[in-house]
């Protein structure tokens, strides 16, 4: 494959996102293993009536000699499980920075491929004897490039950027507010690899010289760890750094390829919106529409501005969303852009009329209406449902009696939760689950296509109803019900969230009885972003367990013979 900025950038963001979703999955497994090990250890202590004494804050068990081997085995399993809970996040942070390093190496390779004359400034020297070993000049050039990349990657991350700036005669840190945090992440990686995470004077010096701010109580020789929230923020940082770096260089070295670059950047940002990462999407669309100045396609520039507006809208910044919309000249815009404007302004009656004008085979397709995040609220309106049925001669939710319901129940417990707090929690959880459904099901052969509808309720829960259209090509021939229960707990001055998740798979044609699935609960601060990731992972866990039932292709029948159990 020919080296290109586009391919390497997409490869990079996919790998960063893969690491982002991997950590919560592994932590869930470790949590389950630790809980099981703790239960086994506790049962052993209680069953054998083993006494304990505490001295200087340390608990010591007085274990009989004949039980010592089993005691040590259970105690070791518990200790190892607890230790893995800290080691795994740290290892994945090292892997995350490693992905950036590998990406930078491939990026430099693309640079030399696009501008081979840059090799002329290389100080690499080869003797005639060395050259005679190669079959062609191209083979010699490949070796020089490899050596140059190896040399750059051995430098610090700051020196790597300085090398690029000198080699390309450009500044790369201007308007890059994330750079101090990027330096901190990479320096923390170095601490974890070389000093077991213990803060050194070099770490503090490098971070401070690059604008990193420390709390007043930050201690020298303190051991740094990696929490779920820190890792998620680090993923955002590395993601932003890599994408911006690639695009600034891409646009300088290939100025005739700006339209393809805009397409790439818009796709990356739109994917982030679909993944509910609105803050990072907004960062990239601000970069695209405010920092980058040259856009050969007005069409693509408008598209990126609209996506910026919807990132603002879904993150609750309605005023800023309207400001972006009002700055766009809509007078000569295509119907699909007019539709986007009406939807973002929640002028659904006008949006429905534009839908009818676009029609069945227009620039907005049936699939677009189903999956595009910009239509997520519009799809719930009667204006949309009526226009959709008129255009496509079918109801948006389908006429079949096959459905899957997901109930999210936010219950008041131990304290009074304000209506506004409860509504915000319901909205946040709903968005996470909707994203999970779409990531797992849409376009996946294991699950049928689906529609998602929110059912408004005055009580303290919200329902998200997904409706399947049966198809012989799909493996799922039954109803999957997933219930997440979110309890709000008041502990001192902190508001905690307790999550439990369960699921039931039902179909009388394939099973004699329902097949239940459960996953563990999580407790944490309500204002920590990690709780929403945990909800996402609990949901994905239930779906994966349901998928495992279809290792063998079920017997095919006509759609009229399919039996669906409604819940």
What would a concise description of this structure say?
The chain is of the alpha+beta class and 567 residues long.
Walk me through this protein's architecture.
The chain has a six-stranded mixed sheet with strand order 4-5-3-6-7-8. A two-stranded antiparallel sheet has the order 1-2. The protein has 18 helices and eight strands. The radius of gyration is 28 Å and the shape is globular. The longest helix has 47 residues, at 68-114. With 567 residues, the protein is α+β, with helices and mostly antiparallel strands. Residues 398-417, 440-478, 505-532 and 549-567 have low confidence and may be disordered. Helix content is 55%, strand content 13%. β7 (494-506) and β8 (515-525) form a beta hairpin.
Write out key terms for the chains shown.
567 residues; six-stranded mixed beta sheet; 18 helices; two-stranded antiparallel ribbon; single chain; alpha+beta
């Amino acid at each position: 494959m020919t080296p290109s900025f586009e391919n390497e950038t997409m490869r990079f963001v996919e790998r960063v996102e893969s690491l982002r979703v991997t950590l919560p999955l592994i932590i869930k497994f470790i949590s389950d293993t630790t809980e099981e090990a703790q239960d086994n250890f506790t049962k052993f202590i209680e069953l054998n009536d083993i006494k304990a004494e505490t001295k200087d804050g340390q608990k010591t068990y007085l274990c009989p000699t004949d039980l010592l081997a089993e005691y040590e085995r259970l105690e070791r399993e518990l200790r190892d499980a607890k230790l893995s809970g800290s080691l795994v996040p740290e290892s994945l942070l090292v892997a995350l920075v490693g992905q950036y390093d590998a990406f930078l190496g491939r990026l430099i390779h693309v640079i030399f491929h696009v501008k081979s004359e840059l090799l002329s400034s290389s100080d690499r020297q080869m003797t005639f004897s060395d050259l005679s070993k190669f079959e062609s000049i191209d083979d010699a050039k490949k070796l020089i490039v490899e050596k140059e990349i190896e040399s750059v990657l051995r430098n610090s991350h700051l020196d790597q950027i300085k090398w690029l700036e000198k080699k390309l005669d450009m500044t790369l840190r201007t308007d890059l507010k994330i750079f101090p945090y990027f330096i901190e992440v990479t320096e923390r990686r170095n601490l974890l690899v070389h000093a077991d995470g213990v803060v050194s004077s070099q770490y503090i010096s490098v971070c401070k010289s690059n604008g990193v701010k420390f709390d007043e109580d930050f201690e020298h020789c303190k051991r740094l760890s990696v929490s779920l929230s820190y890792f998620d923020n680090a993923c955002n940082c590395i993601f932003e750094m890599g994408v911006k770096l690639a695009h600034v260089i891409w646009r300088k070295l290939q100025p005739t390829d700006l339209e393809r670059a805009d397409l790439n950047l818009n796709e990356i940002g739109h994917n982030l919106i679909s993944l509910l990462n609105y803050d990072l999407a907004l960062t990239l669309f601000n970069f695209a529409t405010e920092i980058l100045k040259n856009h050969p396609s007005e069409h693509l520039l408008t598209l990126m501005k609209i996506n910026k507006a919807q990132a603002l809208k879904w993150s609750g910044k309605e005023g800023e969303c309207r400001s972006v919309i009002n700055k766009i000249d809509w007078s000569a815009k295509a119907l699909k852009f007019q539709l986007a404007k009406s939807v973002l302004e929640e002028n659904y009656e006008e949006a429905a009329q534009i839908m009818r004008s676009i029609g069945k085979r227009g620039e907005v397709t049936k699939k677009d209406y189903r999956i595009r995040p910009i239509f997520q609220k519009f799809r719930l309106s009667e204006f949309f449902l009526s226009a959709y049925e008129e255009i496509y001669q079918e109801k948006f939710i389908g006429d079949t009696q096959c459905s899957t319901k997901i109930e999210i129940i936010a219950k008041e417990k131990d304290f009074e939760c304000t209506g506004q707090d409860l509504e915000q929690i319901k909205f946040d959880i709903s968005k996470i689950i909707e994203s999970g459904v779409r990531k797992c099901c849409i376009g996946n052969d294991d699950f049928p296509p689906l529609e998602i509808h929110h059912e408004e309720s005055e009580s303290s829960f919200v329902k998200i109803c997904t409706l399947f259209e049966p198809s012989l090509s799909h493996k799922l021939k039954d109803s999957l019900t997933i219930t997440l229960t979110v309890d709000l707990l008041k502990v001192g001055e902190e508001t905690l969230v307790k999550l439990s998740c369960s699921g039931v798979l039902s179909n009388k044609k394939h099973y004699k009885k329902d097949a239940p699935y459960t996953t563990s609960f999580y407790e944490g601060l309500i204002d920590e972003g990690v709780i929403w990731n945990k909800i996402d992972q609990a949901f994905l866990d239930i779906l994966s367990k349901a998928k495992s039932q279809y290792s063998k292709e079920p017997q095919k029948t006509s759609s009229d013979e399919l039996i669906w159990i409604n819940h």
